[in-house]
Amino acid sequence: MVDSYLRERSSKDWKKSEKHGAAEWLAERWTSIALIVLTGWSLWSAYGLMGQGYDAALAFLRVPLNAGLMALTFVITVWHTYMGLNANVLDYFPNSRLIKLVSFIFCLLLLIAALGGLFLAFKV
């Protein structure tokens, strides 16, 4: 019964999101691919630093390439998180601007905290 109901409906009957299109879909996929590579690099780096102590971790982060890759990892992770949260908000609460604002502020604070911690490594 459900199958016949679905077959009889035209594509115009289906709810379509005007705000979530191909550009967002591609951005989510590209950030996923970038995070696979950057997370692999982060895990490999963390494995190499195991047991070496705090000073070795600070020395690692003071290398510009390592600091840049770590910052890129933070930025792409937060961007990917924001896109995922935004997609869920659009799916379940399409008219809620408050929830969109809260998710944006959450991701912004998360990014500030992550990058702030990274920049503190240069101050110590």
TrEMBL record:
GO terms for biological process: tricarboxylic acid cycle. The chain crosses the membrane at residues 30-47, 59-82, 102-122. The keyword Membrane applies. It holds the Pfam family CybS. Its main location: membrane. One of its GO terms (molecular function) is heme binding. Its cofactor is heme. It comes from the Bacteria. It is a multi-pass membrane protein. It is found in: Membrane. This is Succinate dehydrogenase hydrophobic membrane anchor subunit. It comes from Asticcacaulis endophyticus.
